[in-house]
């Protein structure tokens, strides 16, 4: 395994009195795709959002344990949360485009972080729209509203917007589930290309998607990490009875 970018140590998360993630410890390797799989309600989203402190946006949530990002605990009170969320970006299930143009959606982050030169912004917009596989479809209407795009295009626009602030880690939560199959394939193809530069953690309840994309797999069940390992091993030679049952479709 390459050096871990994120090391989760004894992480538990509760909503009120209900534990959603129980004592999870796992490493996320650099520039690989790690898929978190498991039945609905098993804690996949909670675990994912804990990796960028986005979980704290939920009222009444409590977090125990550590998430080390390059060795530093992101829950340390001295840590700058804005910086963490910039370096560890999230792509959500449904695209949330900003109510502005296609161009402005991508330029928004870099502009917010102080970049003002038009030429430099133009270059970033083109680069990230290309990386998201959207450039050819929008290059002639960059100043049209983002809302005019199809849902699949909007999801790729959100990917471009996320990439524009130069994150190191991309957290992806069921990012193709609201999309038609062709749009879903386009996002999957982008993720496979992006893993040469980014560390990707992907939540999916679609096993076929995990088989297509994952280098490493985390199998969660009722808040617990049941099994973790290289995708080949987890899919073809699972060590735990619960993993075998899940892969056979005995519960979902
Ligand atoms: P998954 O993504 O695997 O479907 P989640 O992480 O969303 O699972 O949810 C894990 C558990 O936490 C579930 O029992 C769910 O009902 C509960 N849960 C999730 N979000 C909240 C919330 N905002 N408030 C209270 N309970 C929640
Ligand atoms: Mg979820």
Short description:
The chain is α/β, with parallel strands linked by helices. 36% of the residues lie in helices and 27% in strands. The strands form two sheets. It has a six-stranded mixed β-sheet, sandwiched between helices.
Give a description of the structure.
Strand 4 (61-69) and strand 5 form a beta hairpin. 40% of the residues are buried. The strands form 2 sheets. The protein has a 6-stranded mixed beta sheet, sandwiched between helices. The protein has a 4-stranded antiparallel beta sheet with strand order 2-1-4-5, with helices on one face. The longest helix is centred in the middle third of the chain and has 14 residues, at 118-131. It is 36% helix and 27% strand. Helix 4 (118-131) crosses helix 6 (151-163). The chain starts with a strand and ends in a 5-residue tail after the last helix. It contains 10 helices and 10 strands. The chain has helices spanning 44-50, 81-87, 102-112, 118-131, 135-138, 151-163, 181-194, 207-213, 231-236, 241-247; strands at residues 4-15, 18-29, 33-37, 61-69, 72-73, 88-91, 169-173, 199-203, 216-221, 224-230. The chain is of the alpha/beta class and 252 residues long. Adenosine-5'-diphosphate (ADP) binds at residues 15, 20, 38, 40-46, 58. Residues 44-45, 203 line the site of magnesium ion (MG).
């Amino acid at each position: 395994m390459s050096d871990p970018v994120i090391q989760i140590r004894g992480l538990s998360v509760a909503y009120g009195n209900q534990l959603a993630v129980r004592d999870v410890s796992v490493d996320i390797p650099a520039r690989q795709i790690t898929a978190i799989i498991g039945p609905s309600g098993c804690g996949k989203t909670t675990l994912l959002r804990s990796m960028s402190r986005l979980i704290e946006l939920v009222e009444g949530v409590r977090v125990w344990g550590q998430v080390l990002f390059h060795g530093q605990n992101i829950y340390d009170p001295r840590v700058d949360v804005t910086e963490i969320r910039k370096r560890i970006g999230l792509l959500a299930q449904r695209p949330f485009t900003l109510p502005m143009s296609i161009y402005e959606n991508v330029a928004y982050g870099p502009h917010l972080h102080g970049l003002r030169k038009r030429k430099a912004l133009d270059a970033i917009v083109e680069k990230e729209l290309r990386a998201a596989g959207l450039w050819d479809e929008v290059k002639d209407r960059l100043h049209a509203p983002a809302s005019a795009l199809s849902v699949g295009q909007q999801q790729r626009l959100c990917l471009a917007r996320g990439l524009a602030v130069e994150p190191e880690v991309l957290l992806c939560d069921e990012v193709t589930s609201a999309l038609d199959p062709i749009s879903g394939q386009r996002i999957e193809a982008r993720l496979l290309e992006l893993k040469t530069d980014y560390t990707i953690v992907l939540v999916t309840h679609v096993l076929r998607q995990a088989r297509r994309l994952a280098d490493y797999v985390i199998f969660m069940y009722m808040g617990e990490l049941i099994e973790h390992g290289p995708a080949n091993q987890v899919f073809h030679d699972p060590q735990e009875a619960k993993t075998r049952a899940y892969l056979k479709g005995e519960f979902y």
